[in-house]
Amino acid sequence: MAKCKKLIGIDGCKYGWVAVSLNCSSANLFKSLADLIRFYPENSMFMIDMPVGLANVDLTERNCEMLNRKILSKKRKASLFSVPCREAIYASSYEEANQINKEIINKGISKQSWGIVPKIREVDQLLQSNRSLVDKIKESHPEVAFHFLNNHQSMEFNKKTDKGQQERLQVLSNYSDKAEMIYNNSMRNFRRKHVSADDILDSICLAVTLEEMVNSGSSFETNNLDILGIPMKIHYFAK
Description:
With 239 residues, the chain is an alpha/beta fold. Helices cover 43% and strands 9% of the residues. It is globular, with a radius of gyration of 17 Å.
């Protein structure tokens, strides 16, 4: 794998993590997020489809999902599920996490949320162990990002379908003439048991969103910080 800089879109996948730079001809796969970050140049910035800042017993409000559900269409709202609090993601079982979450933020945890808890925990541990990454790793959400890239219109079709994948690829191709090449090469290079078509499209989407935000001078700042000073904000590029 050749190192490509500088603006990287990241999504979780069955293999671990899939990363895209628009300077490269294909995505890259990594087992761990730490390996991914080390692979890219020191001056890289990353946009990730994974919760970053977290609520906890001292700050029980993470309202990013609620705010962005109001933006998405009825069909896409469900993609923004509630994020467990920090104490819950370090629980040893779903039952324990569910109980902790109810006690701290008065919400249960869906099985879908619990399914990505290991990756939420991986992000949180990395940011706590290396505070310099807080300014480099920005959170986004592909359905929110696609909504704004698509002239404030949510995606019509489910991302798991052929129609949904072609719809998303068309939107991305409006911003980058490399999007289709990266997608096609990645689909050829990797097995579906390691990374799905929608994982690849989501990581391209976040690379496009990050590049558009940086090139337009968009602000990444937010006053909504968790108790550790980590931002709680879903970023997107709005023209």
